[in-house]
Specification:
Belongs to the nuclease type I family. This is Aspergillus nuclease S(1). GO terms for molecular function: endonuclease activity; hydrolase activity, acting on ester bonds; metal ion binding; nucleic acid binding. Keywords: Disulfide bond, Endonuclease, Glycoprotein, Hydrolase, Membrane, Metal-binding, Nuclease, Signal, Transmembrane, Transmembrane helix. It is built from twelve helices and five strands. The chain has about 350 residues and is mainly alpha-helical. It has one domain (about 1-285): P1 Nuclease. Helix 2 crosses helix 7 (about 130-145) and helix 6 (about 110-125) runs antiparallel to helix 7. The chain is globular, with a radius of gyration of 26 Å. Residues about 1-20, about 290-300 and about 325-340 have low confidence and may be disordered. Bound molecules: 2-acetamido-2-deoxy-beta-D-glucopyranose (6 copies) and zinc ion. One 2-acetamido-2-deoxy-beta-D-glucopyranose (NAG) binds near residues 168, 251 and 252.
Length: about 350
């Protein structure tokens, strides 16, 4: 009984980690970087696809695509979203070290297909809810595909079954989780007093200093991921290949070797997502439903603003009246004083 429970829990945690992508921090950094790059009509368009009170800030939605999958976050709906689980990654045969769409992404049921799908749906969908959904999936999957182990070996589920310890911490982790969150967490702790906004500023500066061309070829990006995996990520501090049968022990050397890659990927993810959203904002056809929904959220915002203004006007009027009354009475009292 206890054992089954434990096994289920372990399974759950592993699966959780498998689709969790960069974790909350990495995903929100990528989305923030992207939003900092938006120009022309893109910010307004994004605003029309987010609840008005967020003022177009997408960061909170960066991990929506993960959170819908779990009973904890989505107790009534999680079962309805399980079909989207496999869209967070693509698996290749172990150590095949190449990506072949017809073998690895059948019927587009993988992260590359999903990015294509939601890029298209974002601009062709007529239904507003569907557009929002497409946007939230897209911003997440574009982050995931920059985590190298989201293009992973099928046999160990993208590194989820490769277990070990990191930085002398006694609790066990796995290679996938290390790349999702472990390396970033170590960086935050070492150099940024665990302050995410300081870390964001640092990554933002890295992005601003970046001069290379933006490469928007996702198949090439997948090949780069695979190259990293086959030449670097699976090699421990003694350059011995890691696998699911032996527990790894990783620390400072592995961290120093790989953290620059992690940060470069955050930068690349932010740049590519920003470029994509700008491009879509420019090329999307103007749709009646889009106008309607814009009008709709616009109208709501207007009503709220007018309402707020009304309240402000009343409160302001009241304050001015009170103050003038107070001033008047003070003046009177002063003059009364001076008179006496
Ligand atoms: C967007 O929201 C995140 C938290 O959800 C916050 O850290 C960030 O500063 C916000 N960005 C802007 C531009 O307001
Ligand atoms: C495309 O998106 C729709 C709507 O979310 C989904 O039902 C479908 O499975 C997706 N297809 C792929 C290949 O991702
Ligand atoms: C881990 O422990 C070893 C041996 O006690 C020590 O030399 C090393 O500095 C520790 N590493 C970290 C990152 O704390
Ligand atoms: C993080 O750093 C920023 C900028 O220095 C600061 O304003 C903020 O209060 C810090 N946050 C925390 C939780 O320490
Ligand atoms: C592992 O390989 C790297 C790169 O080839 C090399 O710099 C390093 O010295 C090697 N480490 C060990 C322990 O052999
Ligand atoms: C796993 O790695 C260990 C250490 O390198 C090696 O001895 C073992 O043969 C490997 N197992 C498999 C199944 O590849
Ligand atoms: Zn994910």
């Amino acid at each position: 009984m206890f054992l089954t429970h434990w096994l289920l829990l372990a399974l759950f945690c592993d699966t959780y980690l498998h689709v969790n992508g960069w974790g909350l921090v990495g995903h929100s950094i990528i989305v923030r970087l992207a939003q900092s790059q938006l120009i022309d009509s893109a910010p307004e368009w994004i605003r029309s696809l987010t609840p008005w009170h967020w003022n177009g800030n997408l960061s909170a939605m960066a991990s929506w695509a993960d959170s819908i999958l779990y009973e904890d976050n989505n107790p009534t709906g999680y079962a309805n979203w399980q079909w989207s689980r496999m869209l967070h990654y693509v698996n290749i045969p172990d150590w095949s070290c190449d990506y072949q769409p017809e073998r690895d992404c059948i019927n587009d049921q993988c992260i590359l297909g999903a990015i294509k799908n939601y890029t298209k749906r974002l601009v062709t969908e007529h239904d507003h809810i569907q557009q929002e959904e497409a946007l939230y999936f897209l911003i997440h999957f574009l982050g995931d595909i920059h985590q190298p182990l989201h293009v992973g070996f099928r046999g160990d589920r993208g590194g989820n079954s490769v277990l070990g310890t990191f930085m002398n911490v006694t609790s066990r982790t796995n290679l996938h989780a290390l790349w999702d969150v472990g390396l970033i967490a170590a960086r935050l702790e070492k150099d940024f007093q665990k302050n995410i906004s300081l870390y964001y500023d640092y990554i933002y500066q890295l992005m601003m200093d970046e001069t290379s061309q933006i490469d928007d070829n996702l198949e090439q990006l997948s090949e780069q991921n695979i190259n990293l995996i086959c030449s670097q990520i699976y090699f421990d501090e003694n350059n011995v290949t890691m696998n699911a049968s032996v527990n790894f022990i990783l620390g400072e050397i592995y961290y120093q070797r790989n953290i620059p890659i992690v940060e470069q990927r955050l930068v690349d993810g932010g740049r590519l997502l920003g470029t994509l959203l700008n491009r879509l904002a420019k090329t999307r056809p103007q749709q009646p439903s889009d106008k309607k929904s814009k009008l709709c959220s616009g109208t709501i915002a207007l009503i709220v603003i007018l309402g707020l203004e009304g309240v402000l006007a009343i409160v302001g009027g009241l304050l001015i009246w009170l103050r003038s009354k107070k001033k008047l009475s003070t003046r009177y009292s002063i003059s009364e004083f001076s008179r006496t």
